[in-house]
């Protein structure tokens, strides 16, 4: 199991070819293109200067839209995951 | 539904061709050009170093002017939205 | 009406051709040239890390000198305004 | 009257040709060259994150040495002033 | 023994040729490639502005994935170690 | 007299040709070369966000080594001084 | 004697030709190469925004590994020292 550190989040990216259930289609404009995926694991959050842990806003299992060029790819048990910081996540799809 | 994270805001941009009700016309000078749209959803706000959530200043339904080159386009249920940070919003049009 | 957010301020720039009442003439040296205008609307101020709103130092109606290349032009009801941050305002002309 | 904002200061620069009373002569080395002038007006100081105003260290009437390339020139009532931040002032000449 | 300072961590990198037990294989896409290794020693943590030591989140003996281009190589007693900051560690492999 | 502001310090640089009493000779490697001088005047220190003045660590009369390319030259009463920030001072020579 | 300021540390670098007792050999890869030396003197530490002195983590006499390109060379009493910031020290060799 991958346990991300601090404000990092492990995402299982949704295949681009697969039509998403929520109907999100990636635009093809010149703007930065976000990508969709499911949260697999979340870090415990950063520790503030006051020594307190600040919990993350996303939870395991949520579907999220994240900045396409963010994060680091990791292959684990045959699957490809993406490790991003919470700040790279734009929105939760409910 | 798109639920933006932290200080992010989901905007439905106003079509450029459509004459705006408030009479705002985008200038054609060399200056950065703002754009107009309606707030569709707002994040819960950032968490400060003191562990307190700082609520956002804009509300769902408000008409706002935002920096044209800000944010990330997201297509959802056939519509195109823009996810921006609150700091990219210049003013609310009342 | 334009309601600027946070530490932003809406300015109605003074026409350059118009001789200003206070006698300010823009210099033509190599230095950055400021511009003069009237404050039309001010934001509520930024929220500090302690969660407190820090009110702005300029008020509606004041005549101010601001950095020439600052801000974003917005046309509204046929007039051209400039939305700047308070930090781009150099001085109030009394 | 020019009332500078925050940590800004209005300076009346000393003419370079004029021999200064204190005997300061600008060096002609490759180093950044400071300039001398009199403080005409000072801002109220910045507001800290704790919401407290931090008063400036220089006072109206003092003779100061400031970084030559700092600030913005403003002409007012026929005179040329310089608006700088307090951090651009190197020393007070007593 | 190497005792890292502050938020630094000493890692013994896993040989690339060696097939990892957890099955992690480094991807060959254009993205930044992480690397795997074992934590050999951890620093005492940074001291916050409040004067309190903030302990690190990783422990000696843990297997971690870290950013490939992070840190400084050190040879010690014939082995090659990597000294990285905790922020360069993406996740703990459990 | 020159009274430096905040964390600034006025130094009277030691002539390079003069053999220093403490035996310090400037190295001629590719590294940044420090220079030696005597502290002539020190500022009152910066004001912290808590509104408290943080006194400087160097005192008038001390011999210091400082970064060679730091600061601003000022000629005053026929002598050449250097105004630097305390952070540009590497060490006190006792 | 050299008394470093704030978070600075005076190091006597170990000659590269000399075989180190602890067996550290500098690697010849493309990575940044650290260097080894002994701590000769440490500063009193930085003063935090709360006005408290934060003591350094290294002590006089300790053997340390530091970033090779960090710091400033100083010759004193015929020896060459290096003045670095504590953050440039990677680890203490015990």
Number of helices of chain A: 0
Return the average pLDDT of chain A rounded to an integer: 84
The major beta sheet of chain A can be summarized as: 6 strands, antiparallel
The low-confidence parts of chain A are 26-31
Percent in strands of chain A: over 45%
Helix content of chain A: under 10%
- Enumerate the strands of the largest sheet of chain A in spatial order, edge to edge or round the barrel: 7-8-2-3-6-9
At the fold tier of CATH, the topology name of chain A is 10 Kd Chaperonin, Protein Cpn10, Chain O
* CATH C-level class of chain A: Mainly Beta
- What is Rg of chain A? 14 Å
Considering residues with a beta carbon less than 8 A from a beta carbon on another chain, report the largest interface and each chain's count: A-B, 28 and 24 residues
Helix and strand pattern of chain A: EEEEEEEEE
The quaternary structure here is homoheptamer
Distance between the termini of chain A: 26 Å
Structure classification of chain A = mainly beta
Number of domains of chain A: 1
CATH architecture of chain A: Roll
Shape of chain A: globular
Count of individual beta strands of chain A: 9
Describe this structure in words.
7 copies of one chain form a homoheptamer. The first copy, chain A, has 94 residues and is mostly beta strands. Chain A has no helices and 9 strands. The first copy, chain A, has one domain: 10 Kd Chaperonin, Protein Cpn10, Chain O, CATH 2.30.33.40. In chain A, the strands form 2 sheets. A 6-stranded antiparallel β-sheet of chain A has the order 7-8-2-3-6-9, with no helix packed on it. A two-stranded antiparallel sheet of chain A has the order 4-5. In chain A, a hairpin with a 5-residue loop joins strand 4 and strand 5. At the A-B interface, strand 9 of A face strand 1 and strand 7 of B. Chains A, B, C, D, E, F, G: This is Co-chaperonin GroES. Chains A, B, C, D, E, F, G: InterPro entries: Chaperonin_GroES, Chaperonin_GroES_sf, Chaprnonin_Cpn10_CS, GroES-like_sf. Chains A, B, C, D, E, F, G: Pfam families: Cpn10. Chains A, B, C, D, E, F, G: It is found in: Cytoplasm.
